[in-house]
Amino acid sequence: MTALKEVNSRQLFMGRLAYGEDLLDEITAVCTRENIRLGRIEAIGAVQRARMACYNQKTHEYRFFTIDQPLEIAQLTGNVSIRQGQPMVHAHLTLADDAGNAYGGHLAPGTVIFACEIIIEALEGPEFIREFDEETGLTLWHM
Amino acid sequence: MTALKEVNSRQLFMGRLAYGEDLLDEITAVCTRENIRLGRIEAIGAVQRARMACYNQKTHEYRFFTIDQPLEIAQLTGNVSIRQGQPMVHAHLTLADDAGNAYGGHLAPGTVIFACEIIIEALEGPEFIREFDEETGLTLWHM
Amino acid sequence: MTALKEVNSRQLFMGRLAYGEDLLDEITAVCTRENIRLGRIEAIGAVQRARMACYNQKTHEYRFFTIDQPLEIAQLTGNVSIRQGQPMVHAHLTLADDAGNAYGGHLAPGTVIFACEIIIEALEGPEFIREFDEETGLTLWHM
Q1: Is residue C73 part of a domain?
Q2: Could you tell me if residue A11 is inside a domain?
Q3: CA of A18, closest CA in chain B: separation in Å?
Q4: Which residues in chain B land under pLDDT 70?
């Protein structure tokens, strides 16, 4: 069911992420440190290698894959909400190789930062809590 | 001519779109329901199949194409403005298949939602009205 | 080192960029005209041809390449900060051809606008100043 809730902007953070760190871990660490339990994320930059996932809509399992080469982050878009009581970052990204070919998917652990410029908007409002959704097999917001 | 106008943030909506619905129709329905006549949109998620368009800059016609397989929405970016008196959603998106290959284009009717997490920012300010633009053949904002 | 600073939204601009102009120059000109020294940018549209770059993480040099055909801008994401005392636009983008294939990279001069709908959010807060970063060879924010 389509359901949207009104939220409000609370704080805006802008900065960069450390060279050599895991991209998903580092974004999650920032959110934890700044006590962000609801938010939106955007970033550009580059990675030393990428690990992403594509969800199999039939088997309900993620298929993980690695692209083991330097890539530009053409765009990363994500959000922060709550799963099992903890802030969880859900991000998708588009990458590009040195010939300009683009790749995309769900950001997984194992993506190593080369450089990353990020904006995180902390939001306030009703809690967005992820729960198992039978139809898709995903943990989606219980609205 | 390059022309920008100042607008203001009015309301921020965050939520998810229904499984199985048409992606463009569903975003449009939300905007109509919330009375959003000016806004910006971002989303990530997955689709069961996609229908997009690329504009032919010579013939001034859209070429529509379908990618009939499950795909991740690596990113969707769009805006809301007025065409023929009604709110109109204009969105572009980047998709990715299970090998990580990326595809992109102008969102067309016929794209079926698997899961979609969306943020819509309702804006207020001068009306942005789309009118026929001779140079491009598109309906662009009359500034 | 990962470092984020809090910034605040100051003004929001929405509009379109001129047909036939250079995309990077035109965004930079808008920022200069509106006195935006810190900001974030998002856009969709189409280009007559694209020139992008991918950074070589070993040699520390950008490799520039041109895609000499009409393309959709599936998404452009960027920021504004200060380099050598002047506002500098840093943007990445994802493009798509008429078969839907996606390309991406760092926006370089030489990308010609067909149509472009843009939102620029002017931010205020501490200055973000780009300085040479030895580890990456890039001019990154000195935090």
Answers
A1: yes
A2: no
A3: 23
A4: none
Task: State the Cα–Cα distance between residues B125 and B133, nearest whole angstrom.
Answer: 22
The enclosing domain of C111 has a CATH number of 3.30.1330.80
Chains in contact with C, where contact requires at least 3 CB pairs less than 8 Å apart = A, B
If 0-12 CB within 10 Å is exposed, 13-18 middle and 19+ buried, where does residue B99 land? Answer: exposed
- Does residue B13 belong to any structural domain of this protein? no
Query: In terms of CA atoms, which chain A residue is nearest residue C8?
Result: A12
- Model pLDDT for residues A30-80, shown as the tens digit of each residue: 999 999 999 999 999 999 999 999 999 999 999 999 999 999 999 999 999
Question: Which one of C9, C56, C138 has the shortest CB-CB distance to A115?
Answer: C138
Domain tally for chain A? 1
Domain enclosing residue A98, as ranges: 19-142
Report CB contact under 8 Å: C4, A15: yes
Q: Do A79 and B48 touch (CB under 8 A)?
A: no
Can you tell me which residue has the tokens 């810190």?
A: C38
DSSP annotation of B15: E
Q: Which residue of C has its CA nearest to A102?
A: C103
Using one digit for the tens of pLDDT, what is the confidence trace for A81-136? 999 999 999 999 999 999 999 999 999 999 999 999 999 999 999 999 999 999 99
A52 contacts in B (CB within 8 Å)? 96, 100
Closest CA to B41 of B93, B85, B113, B84: B93
Distance CA B85, CA B139 (A): 13
**Substitution target from C17, C44, C68, C77 for chain B, most B beta carbons within 10 A:** C44
ipTM: 0.97
Find, in chain C, the residue whose alpha carbon is nearest to that of A31.
Answer: C4
- pLDDT single digits (tens) B76-99: 999 999 999 999 999 999 999 999
